[in-house]
Amino acid sequence: MIEPNRNGEVWVYAEQEDGALHDVALELCGKVRELADRLGVKTGVVLAGWNVRELAYRLFHHGADRVYLVEDRKLEHFQTQPYARVVCTLIEKHKPQIVLFGATAVGRDLAPRVASQMRCGLTADCTDLDIADVDDPSAKKTHKNLLLQIRPAFGGNIIATIVNPDRWPQMATVREGVMPLRDPDMQRKGEIVAEKIKFEERDFAVRLIERHREPRKVNLKGARTIVAGGGGVGSKANFKVIHDLAGAIGGAVGASRAAVDGGFIGKEHQVGQTGTTVRPALYIACGISGAIQHRAGMEESAKIVAVNWDKEAPIFGVAHYGIVGDLNQVIPMMVKAIKERPKE
Question: Whole-prediction pTM value?
């Protein structure tokens, strides 16, 4: 455990693969810029890998003040233990007050290892972050400027705010897509701090022999239009109408957890608390009741259209436009109208 450092920087772990930054690293750069400005401190980013120095400039453009760069041939491909040593060594040396990771497969692997080594707390899958003073009645004191780590709990039925007043750094993983990706400032500059890490033989107890990567089948985060189906679609065969509508408007196909659990479509299409968080220009929810777990992943969409036979469905509470009716009748009518629209 590191003693609380009220002047410590606010850090992000910059996840990258094969020289390409993960979007969540850039999303978090914007958020830590906001948090650091409120605390009156600098922002820092941990960037580890091989031949990744050029990525530092993109991180500066998105809000980083310093990039702690660790380049080593041994870090060419992600492995948990050596990367954990990198992050832990830098935390012990520079003593940041906050460290954030993306709640990706890599972040969920790395962050708990770092938190265990640092003997500090970790809040997983946050959907929001804030800075505030927190009263502690048991200690009869007020903790100044703590990180509020906000996330759904108990199946999404409540929103929990978690604080860590004593065991620092304050650490959290943050869901992809919940923080807006801010426009880069191409004039921003920063400082690259080159670091050398002394590894131990045990850090490489696991040897990477071959890598097999499955290509992404759908890019929900990058889609401007999404047509999503829920349990109300009824069956895998009926899901064809969802694909038809998505094809007619050039959109991606999404789904609720109920549709995925029902075997109607693969999990890579799932939107919501346990799926992907999206912010498209248009989100069409078909046969989706609108449970809070699903709304958490799509309610920031610019325009939401809901199609549901139940006029009391919660999805209508967040929809900008609602159609009450049988989706098996409504959607074919929508597809027909779109296809018959005069070409411009």
Answer: 0.80
